[in-house]
Write a structure and sequence with these properties.
Strand order of the largest sheet: 7-11-10-9-8
Strand content: 25-35%
Largest sheet: 5 strands, antiparallel
Number of strands: 11
Distance between the termini: 31 Å
Amino acid sequence: MLLSKQTVEENATLALWEVTETIDELLDLLHVDPFIVQEISLFTSNKRKLEYLATRVLLQEVLDEQKTIAYTKRGKPYLVDKSFQISITHTGKYVAILLHPTYRVGIDIEKISDKVVRVQSKFLSDEERTSIDHTLAKTHLALLWSAKEALYKILGQEEVEFTNHLTIEPFKPYLMGTMKAKETRTSAAETFKLTYHVFPEFVLVWTVKP
C-alpha cells in the first residue's frame, strides 16, 4: 500500500510503501512478470520475496511503468535503462525509494529499537556519542545510524568505516529536520545535507547530491 509519494529537494522523488499484500498479490500487480517470478524463486525467505516485490511495485507505482533493477558488484542498485538514479531501503514491513534523473541519491529507513543503543559504538565516534540526547536516545541513535547508511549508499565506495569516515554534526532531533555531514573516505571529502522524518515506528533519512 502506497503511504506517500512526494517531491523533495532538487526535484527528487521519494516514495514510501507499507507491505500489507501477500506475495501473490504483489506478483499480480507486476502482471506476473516471468523474469521476476524466476528471480524470487531463488529466495528461500518469504520476507526477502516481499521486500523484492514491494520495491518493484513501488517503483512501478511512482513511474507508471515497469523498470528493471540491477545491482553493481558492490550491491548498489541501478535502473538498467539508466533513466533515474535510485536508492532503495527497507525495514520490517516498510519499503522506500528515492529517485532523481541525474543527481546521486541515498536513502535509509531504520526501526526505532533497543538495537541501535547496543551497537552505537560500531557506527559512532566517541565525539558523536557525547552529543546524544539521552531523553530521546533511541530516536537520536536511529537517526544517526540511518544517516550514515544513506551516506554509505550515496558514496558507493568499498571499505567505508562508519566511525572514522562518516561524521554527523551535532543536532537536536525533532519530528523532521536536517543534518549536516562530512565524509573523509574519498579525496573529495564531500559535505552533505541530510533530511529526516521521524515516524512512530521508524526514522527515514535521505540525501540528494549533484
